Amino acid sequence: MSTDATIQNSIDKAATTVGSLWPIHSFVTANPLSGFEDQPFGEAVEQAADLLGGRGYPSAETFRTALERGQIDPDTLEAELSEAGYGGEAPEALLDRMADATAHDTTAADTATEHVDRVLAKWLSAFLDEGSAHWAMPKREAGFYTAFRGVTEHDDEIPDEGVVTDLPETPAEAIETVLAPFPESQWVPIFEEQLTALPGWTGYIKQRVDDGGEWQSTYPISLEGYLAARLALLDAVGADIEPSNDDVDANPADELARAFLRAWEATYRGDLVEAVSVESQSLADSDASGRPDAQLVFCIDTRSEIIRRHIEATGAYETHGYAGFFGIPMEYQGYDADVSVDACPPILDPQHHVTDFPTDDGTQARHDRWSGIRAAADEVIETLEANAATAYGFVETAGSGYGLALAARTLVPGRVRDLFTTADESVPDEQEFCEPLVHHQHTYAGDLPVGLTTEEKVEYAATAFDLMGWEEFGRLVVFTGHASETANNPYDSSLDCGACAGNPGGPNARVLATICNDPEVQAELRERGHEVPEDTVFLAGQHNTTTDEVELYDGDVPESHAEDLAQLRADLATAREHAAAERAASMDADGASVDEVERRAADWAETRPEWGLAGNAGFVVGPRELTSDLDLDGRAFLHSYDWSTDPDGEALEAIMTGPMVVTQWINTQYYFSTVDNAVYGSGSKVTHNPVGNVGVYQGNGGDLMTGLPNQSLMAADDQPHHQPLRLSTVVHAPVERVTGVLAKNGELAELLDNDWLSLTVVDPTQEHRAFHYEEDLEWTPVSEEAAPEPAAPTTPAVADD
Known about the structure:
Layout: H1 3-14, H2 41-52, H3 60-68, H4 74-83, H5 91-101, H6 111-128, H7 144-151, H8 171-178, H9 187-195, H10 199-211, H11 213-218, H12 223-236, H13 254-285, E1 294-299, H14 302-312, E2 317-322, E3 330-333, E4 341-343, E5 352-358, H15 361-386, H16 391-411, H17 413-425, E6 434-436, E7 444-445, E8 448-449, H18 454-468, E9 476-483, H19 506-517, H20 519-527, E10 537-544, E11 550-553, H21 562-586, H22 593-602, E12 618-621, E13 636-639, H23 650-657, H24 659-675, H25 677-680, E14 688-691, E15 695-698, E16 714-716, E17 719-720, E18 728-732, H26 735-744, H27 746-753, E19 758-763, E20 769-773, E21 779-781
Helix pairs in contact: 1-8, 1-9, 3-5, 4-13, 6-12, 7-12, 8-12, 14-21, 16-17, 17-22, 18-20, 21-22
């Protein structure tokens, strides 16, 4: 094997130690330790602590707060502590011991390495900038390593020593030169330590390479080029790059922390499973019938649980949960957008290019006129601000006006929002004059076909109906995407739809509604057994998760459904008032609920416009009736599923291998951002410094922050809001069917075997009893007294074969 190939293979192996990081404008929640998921959770966090320095378990104070709040059942905790060898000892004393054992590393920082980090961060931010900088780094088109070679002799911070004085033409040559004194057996650990030195930047490079895209193709960068530059700089400052051979020492507090964490998780899971089991029995005994006035399909997002409860309380409405990209793995380009975005989960690749095309010339012209005026004004202001010759004059002339505007936005943000809303209403939104170009165009945008074939449209519609177990349709069926509203917030995309890769879900909802309204598609669906009534109309909408307003895209709703639509609008307004009141209370907000959430959305000084998915802890897969009578406090993902309409288990397999994995990513992002925000989160929003439209610093330089800010997790500095628990999944289906899914999908079973999440099945065919997954496809009855005869299956089997 050539040296170049050996270097690349070693880099690829080492790169698994850093998680992927998406750009801040399209923030994707993901497990920061995704490269360790093939290991048991305990071992993974120990290795990550050694490489990244991050804590893997909640602190003693976090556990103490949970105990005080009654979130950990004392009997459950006693059982877990006894199993861990701490039986009979007082929890408070054990927490004191845990706090004492959690020692922080006081090793002095390596000043040479810090210097290298600072220099690298400076040139990485210049090279990877996505349109924020007015003066570009030279030679970006040639790639990072070549551009870096070009600036080394002009940077006074780079010593004229070592290999950097005459950098080889290729990254591989530079790496080989620096690694010459080291045997190949040490290359992977050397690369691991250097990649984890700035895990934010390297995680971003890793994802950018994997994703490709316009910025990567125009200004290419690779981990090999990055490592070549880093190793050359380390050589120049005389830093020691020999990897540490010390074995990973487990934190002595970790064993205790694991016992407390298991008890906390078991307490939450026990309450959830018991409630679902009771509702499962009630569901079997009920005889629900009758056509709903309307059906609304929301994303499985935890924030949807709140608005769904309040909508159902206003009338004869059904709500359903479905992954927020609505099953359409597409690349979407809006009417005014310069670039397209991936509107599907990061575990999927887009399969179609969908764009908006105008259908109303008059409305389009009005939109273009106002948008053009606004764009021209923005361009003039940006030019004046950026031009050294005009910047001071611009400030002199416009300063007083800016001052008044800033004061208004600070003192009366709600009124400013009303003003902007009124102005925006004069400019038509694109859904008012555009339709998504859904029909197959026999053309390509890059590598993706534009639009969908009839067969593909039928497949996506049928899959949606199958996954949700639909057998009846209302007169109105609303696919409701979601997006957030916030001001002055670099992390705004983290509040949008995670299933749409940090983008709004409205476009996906519009595509599925357009598909389902297609007469040709409906005819094919009827052939498949989906009897869509002639009077059923599908439409799209978008839920604003900050204000709980649901906007309906109703341009194609016929006059025959005008009364249905008017009633739905009125009931959505009522539901919004109640949901906003609940949401405002969770933030200890004062004032009228709707006014308060609108103020928070508009206030550019508001660090916490909404809670996002904070609090997430559960994922329930089953019919809505299992949870419709439960207040889950906005903490559970809810995916509709009816086991009785899925005899071969294909729908269940799709849910468990797709949405369940995505929710586990979200859950672990929140978990690790909470347990060690300095390493896995992003610190305080107050000191965020956006860089290059790709991420944020803390302060004026250094590494990109990789996770969620403190304000998304904490009610106050000493008052946690998010409970850092691993995801508890509850599936309503025959246990044999779930076992079969796991047997066919080894990576999914591995996640469970390694304790990255838990799984409990409520089996409607075994008297609604619950079974908890242990490992190796084995189950344990949740209650020994309720154990069935025979016991739950321990070998793979699929029901109804």
